Fold this sequence. Notes:
CATH topology of the largest domain: Rossmann fold
Order of helices and strands: EHEHEHEHEHEHEHEHEHEHEHEEHHH
Number of domains: 2
Radius of gyration: 21 Å
CATH superfamily of the largest domain: Glycogen Phosphorylase B
Amino acid sequence: MERLRICQLITELAPAGAERALFDLATRLDRDRFDVQVAALRGGAMADRLRGAGIQTTVLGLRGRWDVVKLARLAGLFRKPKIDLVHTHLFHADMVGRAAAALAGVKHLVHTVHTVEGRPLPWRFTLARFFKDRCQRIVCVSPSVRADHARRSGLPDSCYQVIPNGVAAEAFSRDVSARRALRAQWGLGDHEVLLAYVGRLDREKGIDILLGAMAHLGARGNPMRLVVAGTGPRANAVETFIGHGEGGRYTRALGFVDDVRAVLSAADALVMPSRWEGFGLSAAEAMAAGLPVVATRVPGLVDLVVDAQTGILVERDDVVALAEAIHSLSGDAALRERLGRAGRERIDRSFSIDACVRAHEQLYTEVASR
């Protein structure tokens, strides 16, 4: 039986949530049934990782929306050899991918929406309605994403399918030696509680709210240990916080971290104060590592973190509530253990990478058979 030729197209290949989800999908699809390649409008560190895993990866280097030369190159990529199905990820790749697929005569296209968009941007949803006939299925990474996109686009339920992101839980199992080594490097005692933040440093992720909560705890005489793993436009705010005030003595900025497992192994809880999410991959990875999660009650995270069962949910933008949740969790080792164990069980039961891959394989086969 001839393999289905699939091209996964994404906006860029920086090591963020959507890009990591694409990596896990592209590298785990059954290669006896699917011939997979990846294309990106812009590059990033994930390109080398994909190539190292044996996935043909093309970076177009798109310079603007009207880069016609690159659009023609993408259409040519779809023609030789003839791609059966294009799977786009993120908005800009979707718009460019639909145009290139039309030029190349590709009949089948699916698109994944990875986030609940926190900005108005009504024209994006207008375009989704206008081009709906060029897309056989819109995949949403959580029920929250589906509900938000359907409400704002006005598209019928038949256009959508929810396939949650998957986590390879075994890849995040606690590494005792890494925990011991990192905590010694950071000057932490065995019984000191360490919080971790893993993600982009920008407003969307609520890093300012986390720093406010840490300052609040410090002012109350309850400073907490925190490591911040990530880069982004708010990195200067983290450095400023560390450089000024008592609370900064207990906070360490790690910058970009490739070995997330090691950081999670060293930590005792993850804090994720996002203003909006689609799925919350960092929270899922922390749950796979057996960590409780303190997170905001926002779309995406509420589909993943169960309040009082796998973590603690607080209202977004509430510095004091976040500080109180952190304080209550840090002072109760038995609670951390119970929530962390339940979180790992939830990942194994509902968010395994194998289930995610199987659902995509079934979707591709169904759409291509039409």
